[in-house]
Amino acid sequence: MTNDKSRASLMHVLRSGLLRIVPQLLAIATAFLVGALVLIATGYSPIDVYSALIMGAFGDVYGVGQTLTQATPIIFTALAFLFSYKSGLFNIGAEGQLIMGGFAAAIVGISFSGLPAPLHILLAVLAGALAGGVWGFLPAILKARFGAHEVITTMMFTYIATYLTSYLVNYPFKAPGWVAQTVPIADSAQLPRILPPTQLSVSILVAVAMAAVIYYILQKTTLGYEVRASGLNPSAAENGGINVKRTMVLALILGGALAGIGGAGEILGVHNRFIQGFSPGYGFDGIAVALVGGLNPLGVLLAAILFGALRSGGMLMTRATHVPLDIVVILQALVIIFVAAPHFLRYFVRRRSKA
To answer: Are 38 and 330 in contact (CB under 8 A)?
Structure first.
C-alpha cells in the first residue's frame, strides 16, 4: 500500500512538472520557428543550419561534453537568480558574484602547495562560495537597511567585480606574458575531468546536486517557506512572524554563494587559472535560463542544457553552413523574448502595485 501511494505521488509530481513546462516548450518551439523565418529571409536553409547546430551540440561525445561544460556555470547562476527571485528580489548580479568566486578560488588554488587534493579543492570551492556570498551580502544590506533597489546595486557590484579583478589580474597577480591571467593553480586544486578530451569536470555533478538541494530547501524546509512567503506577499509574511528583511538578505547571500561556486568550478575545472573575461556572460544567461526553466530548480537543468547546446553547437553550425555566429545570439534572444517576457512583466507589475 505504501509503495502504491509513493508511486502515485511520484507520478503526480511528474505529471504536474510536465504540465508546468508545456508553455516553455511551446515558447521555445515558437522561438525556433521565428528563427527559421529569419534564416530564410537572410538566404540560409533552416534545416541545414539547425541540423548542424544539433550535430555540433549532441552529435558525438565531444559535442555532448562541451554542451554540458557550457551549461554548468549557467546552472549555478540560474539557481542564484532563482533563489533570490523567490524571495522577491531581482538579483542580476550573478555575473559579478561568479567572477569574484572564480578569482577567490584561483588565489586559494595558487597559494597553497602540498595539500591533499580533496582538501585543496574543498578550500578553493569554499573560498569561491564565500566571495560570491559576500558579493550578494553587500547589495542585500543596502536593500534591507537603506531600501536601495537590488537591480541597481547588484548591477553596480558586477561592474565593481569586473574592474577590480581586471586590475588584480593585470598587476599584482599577473602571470608573465601579454595575457591578463594568473599563474596556473596547483595540480592538487584542479577538478577532475570526467569526459576527456572535453573540458567537462565534476563541477557538473555539483551543479546537479545544488539544483536538487535548492529544490529541497524551497519545498521542504522552513527557510524555503519563508523565502517563498516573502516573495509572494511580504506584508502577509511579516504579519505572520517572518522577518522579511532577514530572509531577503539570506536569499541574496545564498544566491551569491551559488554563483561563486559556479565561478570556482570554471577556474578549477576548465581554465585552471583565472583569466580576465573568462565568463562570456554566464551570469546574464542565468537570468534567462531561470525563467525559461519555469523558475524551477529542476527545470533550470534542462534550460541550461538548451543554452549550452546553442553555445557549443553554434561553432560547428558556423563552420558547416557559414552562418554568422550572431544567429545563435538571435535564437537566444528569441527564446528569452517568448519565454521570459511574461515573467518580467508580472514582476514589475507586482513591484509597482507594492509601491
So the answer is: yes
